[in-house]
């Protein structure tokens, strides 16, 4: 079982997120929820919407992308006054669609592209838009009632940032967030109704590619009143750009030509967050620090003192700090410290909502009488280059058991978890038996994992017969619900498909060799 789990993580496939409206009449399929801005280009927001024409009838289906900056707590919104500012809005009519046939064998072409209501439209496509590869595959499987949408965020669109709330704060946190909405209405300006609307939280993250840049360095020369000589402090970093989780090497060089004695040194990594409002408030938070007197004191007339220190800013060490800027956080998913904001156009800085910068501060402590010597160095904290299947052309099989949920279910000592542990173990055993019986079938599979958030989590198995993905691949969707942690009282009320013991329940096979369903509420 462990060997199969290890081999599973080595495989890659196409992942698609899915969410349905409360009444189940429209369903949104989204290529991904994290969209990377590489400075030169931004990942497109592409997907399809599955529509029930009998329900929509004479109305229309719209999809729009909204970016908003919330600078106050949600519970303070009273009397129609909201602490919220819309930064970007692009909308498109998905249904009824407008298609045309191209004579150059390009297939169907979408004639109603997204229109921008707010923000710049320099990077938005105009005119006709051909279907992407992922849209073609989804439409081929979902049928004629699936309609595509496509958005291209501009280069100056703000990045997703969330300010970490306090332990007793509820509601939406402050920050910049993105949301993809699909809804049924007469016009795009009609009020959204929850029963026939789909709302998906998405994120725009920044990836700064590796580029040659000089090492950050700074020198400060301190002179003292009523005291001869100077104290020279030189600080440098090993590079200018760091990825999340990397250690920062700080090289410190001190030449003490004064009659002062350096007692100790303090080093810190500070995050500076500036709100782009009328007052331009700026906040700073220490994300890692070090204070030491090792190899000290540095005596008068001592020169050439040099040492390298390491600091590593991580969210894991700062989860208790209120107001810390994080990359946009999706529900039930962990995140990291906010990436550095890279301002391409200073004239559009107010459209960013908030900016995040990082600095290393080095401080020499001289004593109670003398003033300390300090210097700050800026650096960039960003994401590494992503390697994902953007076009949705992967042809490998993934059996995604959602290891995060498995870990949460199988860990813990509460007696109520025994029931869930048995379900997971039996489900894994049943899945292995089914997969071993089909080893002789020559099929190349994709798993398109459809994650619809909280209410209706599903995954679909996509199979393409033959070698690789071609224009004639046959996508087969087969549902299975994610295993959810339920209380003992809830489990007693569920339908039991195959009971082998008095206190456990077997998972139900849903007519697929690699998919199982747990006894949970119907999707």
From TrEMBL:
Residue span(s) of domain Arrestin C-terminal-like: 227-386
A cellular-component GO term for this protein: cytoplasm
GO molecular function terms noted in the UniProt entry: G protein-coupled receptor binding
One Gene Ontology biological process: signal transduction
One Pfam short name: Arrestin_C
InterPro entries referenced in this protein's UniProt entry, alphabetically: Arrestin, Arrestin-like_C, Arrestin-like_N, Arrestin_C-like, Arrestin_CS, Arrestin_N, Ig_E-set
Protein name: Arrestin C-terminal-like domain-containing protein
Species: Schistosoma margrebowiei
């Amino acid at each position: 079982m462990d060997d199969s789990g290890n081999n599973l993580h080595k495989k890659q496939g196409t992942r698609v997120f899915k969410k349905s409206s409360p009444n189940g009449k429209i369903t949104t399929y989204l290529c991904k929820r994290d969209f990377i801005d590489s400075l030169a280009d931004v990942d497109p927001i592409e997907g399809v919407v599955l529509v029930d024409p009998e329900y929509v009838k004479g109305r229309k289906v719209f999809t729009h992308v909204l970016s908003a900056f919330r600078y106050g707590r949600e519970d303070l919104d009273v009397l129609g006054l909201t602490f919220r500012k819309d930064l970007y809005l692009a909308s498109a009519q998905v249904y009824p669609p407008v298609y045309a046939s191209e004579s150059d064998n390009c297939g169907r072409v979408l004639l109603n592209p997204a229109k921008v209501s707010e923000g710049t439209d320099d990077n938005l496509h105009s005119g006709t838009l051909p279907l992407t590869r992922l849209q073609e595959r989804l439409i081929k499987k979902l049928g004629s009632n699936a309609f595509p949408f496509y958005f291209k965020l501009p280069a100056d669109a703000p990045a997703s940032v969330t300010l970490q709330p306090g332990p007793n704060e509820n509601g939406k946190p402050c920050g910049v967030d993105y949301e993809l909405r699909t809804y049924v209405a007469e016009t795009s300006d009609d009020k959204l109704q929850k029963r026939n609307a789909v709302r998906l939280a998405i994120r725009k993250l920044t990836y700064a590619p590796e580029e040659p840049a000089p090492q950050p360095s700074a020198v400060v020369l301190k002179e003292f009143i009523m005291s001869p000589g100077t104290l020279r402090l030189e600080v440098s970093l090993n590079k200018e750009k760091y990825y999340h989780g990397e250690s920062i090497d700080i090289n410190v060089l001190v030449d003490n030509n004064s009659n002062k004695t350096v007692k100790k040194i303090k080093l810190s990594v500070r995050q500076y967050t500036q709100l782009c409002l009328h007052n331009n408030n700026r906040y700073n938070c220490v994300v890692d620090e070090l204070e030491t007197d090792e190899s000290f004191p540095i005596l008068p007339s001592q020169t050439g003192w040099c040492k390298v220190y390491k600091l590593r800013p991580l969210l894991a060490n700062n989860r208790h700090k209120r107001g810390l800027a994080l990359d946009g956080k999706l529900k039930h998913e962990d995140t990291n410290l906010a990436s550095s904001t890279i301002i391409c156009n200073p004239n559009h800085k107010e459209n960013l909502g908030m900016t995040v910068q990082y600095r290393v501060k080095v401080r020499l402590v001289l004593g109670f009488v003398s003033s300390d010597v300090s210097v700050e160095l800026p650096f960039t904290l960003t994401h590494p280059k992503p390697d994902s299947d953007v076009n949705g052309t992967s042809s490998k099989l993934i059996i995604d058991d959602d290891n995060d949920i498995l870990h949460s279910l199988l860990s813990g000592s509460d007696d109520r978890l025994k029931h869930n542990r048995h379900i997971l173990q039996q489900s894994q055993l049943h899945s292995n038996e089914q997969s071993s019986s089909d080893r002789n079938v020559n099929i190349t599979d994709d798993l398109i994992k459809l994650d619809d958030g909280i209410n209706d989590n599903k995954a679909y198995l996509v199979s393409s017969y033959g070698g690789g993905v071609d224009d004639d691949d046959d996508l087969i969707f087969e549902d299975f619900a994610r295993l959810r942690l339920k209380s003992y009282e809830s489990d007693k009320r569920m339908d039991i498909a195959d009971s082998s013991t008095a206190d456990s329940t077997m998972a139900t096979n849903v007519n697929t060799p690699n998919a199982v369903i747990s006894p949970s509420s119907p999707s």
